[in-house]
Amino acid sequence: MKLTKFEIARILGARSLQLSNGAYTTIETTLDSSLKIAYEELKQGKVPLKPIRPIKG
Hints:
0% strand; 57 residues
């Protein structure tokens, strides 16, 4: 599923907040910024979040 730029921004923001509040990372990293870690997780496809899209019909 290809994410829109709005979904990417929302997922990065939510995951970054989780990491800054003490959540465990899903990747091995030496980065120090929660936003950079969230971006790396997103690039590797290991973010434990996914968008919910409305059903068209």
